[in-house]
Amino acid sequence: MKIIVGITGASGSIYGLKLIEVLKNAGHQVHVVISDSGLGVIQYECDTTLEDIAVVADKIYNVHNVGAAIASGSFQADAMVIAPCSMNTCGCLANGITDNLLTRAADVMLKEGRKLIVVPRETPMHAGHLENLLKLCRMGAVIIPASPGFYHRPDTIMDLVNMLVGKICDNLGVKNNLFARWQGTM
């Protein structure tokens, strides 16, 4: 599959970085676009640079280049995941505002009827946040909140990250064994 991964300035950039790694290891083509604030969060939270990401991704696009390939429906990406997705980006998408390449690429996914997964990372949320997420859901986006479960008995932060990334991959149809799946009660 050809998958676009967007990373915004919400806390939780590790989700997007791990997703890029997992998708590449599974043999998928990964195109990445990172907002300016997203890059700052990646550097702060993960000590990772754009150069580090470029080693893994097939292509990284400048968020200000709205003429890039992923801005067009003719690019034919199979899916796009925004992980994490800031409430600013959710608000823009819910209201048809495409002020950069990340929001334009996501808007293209919606208008073309292709899979768009949004991973909001905000707490608490007010009514405006929830209304924007509902609008996105009604427009065809899949909402996977960055709130991993604990039934797999995580020991580390990466166990929690892997669980959420595994759920994203499940939704994309990407086979994975990133977390222990629920087997039922005794």
From TrEMBL:
Pfam families with a match to the protein in the record: Flavoprotein (PF02441)
The reaction(s) this protein catalyses: dimethylallyl phosphate + FMNH2 = prenylated FMNH2 + phosphate
Keyword Protein biosynthesis found: no
Gene Ontology MF, one: flavin prenyltransferase activity
Xref: InterPro entries: Flavin_trans-like, Flavoprotein, UbiX-like
Enzyme type, top EC level: transferase
Binding residues annotated for FMN, in chain numbering: 9-11, 35, 86-89, 121
Annotated signal sequence range: none
Keyword check for Kinase: no
Keyword set, alphabetical order: Flavoprotein, FMN, Prenyltransferase, Transferase
Top-rank taxon: Bacteria
Residues the record lists as binding dimethylallyl phosphate: 151, 167
Gene3D superfamilies: Flavin prenyltransferase-like
E.C. numbers: 2.5.1.129
Residues covered by the Flavoprotein domain: 1-171
Alphabetized NCBIfam families for the sequence: PRK06029.1, ubiX_pad
Function: Flavin prenyltransferase that catalyzes the synthesis of the prenylated FMN cofactor (prenyl-FMN) for 4-hydroxy-3-polyprenylbenzoic acid decarboxylase UbiD. The prenyltransferase is metal-independent and links a dimethylallyl moiety from dimethylallyl monophosphate (DMAP) to the flavin N5 and C6 atoms of FMN.
Protein family: Belongs to the UbiX/PAD1 family.
Name of the featured protein: Flavin prenyltransferase UbiX
Naturally occurring in which organism (per UniProt): Anaerovibrio slackiae
Gene responsible for this protein: ubiX
